[in-house]
Batch of 2 targets.
Target 1
Amino acid sequence: MSRKHDYNLRSMSNLMGERWKKAGDGGERSLIRAPSSASIGSHGASVGASTATGAPTTSTSSSSAAAAAVGSATAASSSTGDLERAARKQFQQDVTPGFVYVLAVFSALGGFLFGYDTGVISGAMLLLKKELHLNALWQELLISCTVAAAALSALLGGFLNGLFGRRVCILLASFFFTVGGIVLSTAPGKEVLLTGRLIVGVGLGIASMTVPVYIAEASPPHLRGQLVTVNTLFITGGQFTASLIDGAFSYLQRDGWRYMLGLSVIPALIQFVGFLFLPESPRWLIQRGLTQKARRVLSQIRGNQNIDEEYDSIKNSIDEEEKDSGGDGPVIWRMLTYPPTRRALLVGCGLQMFQQLSGINIIMYYSATILQMAGVRDDRLAIWLAGITTLTNFLFTLLGVWLVERVGRRKLTLGSIIGTCLSLSLLATGFLISAQHSPPITFHPLDPAMANSTCSKYQLCEPCMLDPACGFCYRENSSALLASSCVPVNKASTEQAAWGRCSNVSLMKDHTYWAYNYCPTSYSWLVLLGLVLYLAAFAPGMGPMPWTINSEIYPLWARSTGNACAAGVNWTFNILVSLTFLHLAQYLTYYGAFFLYSSLALLGFVFIYGCLPETKARRLEEIEALFENQLCSCGASDSDEGRQVEYIRVKGSNYHLSDNDASDVD
Ligand SMILES: O[C@H]1[C@H](O)[C@@H](O)[C@H](O)[C@@H](O)[C@H]1O
């Protein structure tokens, strides 16, 4: 197809759908309402042609064309709908070269490592604690130091991103992942292990904030949501792979953990080598004044299409943004003092906070305990079954990738958080009913050590299970519990009691079981149902959207800093929620804790409903305008979404439909 013909199709496609033109700032910036799609037969072709040749398109001509179009609107609607779809399809095929997918996949390996390194430790810990005789403090240290390092390095990543660019930061992150993996797999003792986990954490923080930004900046708008969401798909894919590797190497009692922790070196190296050849983000290059290079990169990732308009549009927006943002001083200060970026930052950080407060990582880390409650007593089987949790998370994130450009970010996030809130209530109800039917303690062993133990005072399994110093030892005879007692836990290993029948695996014959952190119950199906529904609701929306939305809501000058802050908030709340869960359960009980998470999710719904605007299919440069209104006035504009009113920013009077614009028509 000739270039000109191709352009006309694009222009036609652009001119369909309603667009408002609102005069503004002396023509410097205006918002156009173009003729409705039905007008294409009578006016669209000529307007399209004039636009294609670069003729000025003024507000008056647009409005009169729109007015003239109203009459023919109904009759032509269905056939033009088909035409529009065909035009858009043709256009999108033309402008989406494969290179952008290569770029997204190589970057998303950072997401894979994020998921793998945070997921693999739970299985590795089962082996590590036996081989290196780790006490509870060391176990906690090895798990949480990575998340803490990630929180700090995500903040630092904002600075590095601005200074060295996205590509260098991704290279740096994969370097840290590689070195961390090597240190972990060869560690002679726990101190070196701790160092390795810290190094991996630094990589995690940098990757988590850079990768979504890089993908968003390289993608065409109609694919941006999907491609950035692929990064979260890779996170959950990494978590799933980690659970498979954990399962497979759990049979290797000696050094199994070395393989579990060391295997991450492979994707890290692939990413490192790949990024030696991949280009820098064109937007960052333009911002740095490296214009020739930016042009080359843009044309490379747009498959040698004409990139003049996209280039000009980015360049103009950057110049304008720099003026708008005003003032000097550190970026974070400028963000906080400039209302649109302040609002965007609040929305971005709020989303990340509510993602973590909805308890995803409680579910990820404690799914084995939940499965034990459901009657799975074999450790290895529990590890494999925990893989089903991560697989469910992965599969439903895939649904999110499919939905994000269809239903949009706002609806997807709202639907997801309300489902999350309801399924958390179901989980809580499951725990509540289990607690109400908690098995009684029927056997009080007469051991002298028992006299000064708190465990002796409990009459039911529930309070005994909630006391971290105690566990529940019982015999089961065709689902009836016999001789159940509450006894102190072995301080060196929570897998057995300090003394008595449950203190040694060889003594636990004759259907005798040790339950730490859970009580046997016949209502576990309710909890399992809640768990599956939770993941089905959370994974398509609340899992990926906070990352996706953060990658697109800040103007370029504030993008690295905004994403760094939001990623920092995500990691900080991750550590807060996962470290406080067991204590919270102790004070509020399990059902109390889950009702609390459910209420927090409800609060998140209110926040998102009020404050999150739809960013689907807008050019990154247009999104700033969405935050010009007062924060938390988005719910009021919900009805606008249905009317398909689209606002496009025009520089000067000579408006060209940019390459990106075809995707704006929906
Ligand atoms: O978006 C991701 C994803 O949902 C993961 O499953 C979760 O572990 C992360 O904390 C979260 O940030």
Target 2
Amino acid sequence: MIPLDSLRARYLDGILAASDEAALEDLRLAALGKKGEVALLMRELGKMSPEERQTIGKALNELKDELDVALRARKASLGDAALEERLRAEWLDVTLPARPRRMGTIHPVSQVTEECTAIFADMGFAVAEGPQIETDWFNFDALNIAPEHPARQEHDTFFMHRAAGDNRPPHVLRTHTSPVQIRAMQAQGAPIRVIAPGRVYRMDMDQTHTPMFHQIEGLAIDRDISMANLKWVLEEFFSAYFGTKVKTRFRASHFPFTEPSAEVDIQCSWVGGTLKVGEGDGWLEVLGSGMVHPKVLTAAGVDPSQWQGFAFGMGIDRMAMLKYGIPDLRAFFESDLRWLRHYG
Ligand SMILES: Cc1ccc(OCc2nc(C(=O)N[C@H]3CCS(=O)(=O)C3)cs2)cc1
């Protein structure tokens, strides 16, 4: 009688060493198949005494069950490994549907900035850019804004606070893009025709004001530029922007950086809650403007006895709200995809 232990050890080792399911199946047949070693031993039982038959028979059945469990366990782990191998080999499942790719949209602020820039480019204005963090000189002093002017207060302006002993000049988040035009004049002198679009920052927050918003300012300096030139440039701009003939109305005003100054309205009517530009007997304020103050030209290194010209400033977000009928400025910056897709 073969000692069952060596048979058991041989098969258990063989099962653990089996490298794939085919080898395992061969082992199962060799051990437990009709012609398997266990089946052959079972046939020997008939030649034994009843006592032997019972002992050996029990041992053979236990061996059969043990090998069966070991074979199933090994088959399961080989199956997992085969699946793992297949998933690794077939990482790219070309039968999967393509990932939905939605077309992006251009933000209304970017659209309006590009549109305004193009319209002014047609009238000979180049685009000037500059830093968003400015010294208080470029943001205020150069624009003839007095030291005690309320706009310099912290309730209006974001100041960069300095560590003690840091004696660099105060820096602010620019409150308008006017400093860009000072820098442009310092760089190229007169004559000059530039527009300065960009982000500006003011301490403010409500339905029509956000701490960051977008402005576009214009500057035209030459030998004999007048308010009449300003009126023409603005009427050309608004007519192109709104796609219809737009009349403007100048109302006397005051800004430290322009003299004379004028707030400019465009003709409009509110038909059933929607804005109609270029008709009706209503007027809507859209920007501020004026002839550049001599002190501002001097600060920028341009001789006011030789050169003069106009400047204006308007809110890009506000222009987008007017054109697209967007009621709340805060929605511009909430990154709500539904809003962006609707207005984009
Ligand atoms: C060198 C230089 C000299 C003068 C300049 O004057 C730009 C001007 N801006 C305004 C004005 O009213 N701007 C506001 C309109 C709405 S807003 O976006 O809140 C800012 C009037 S004149 C600019 C640069």
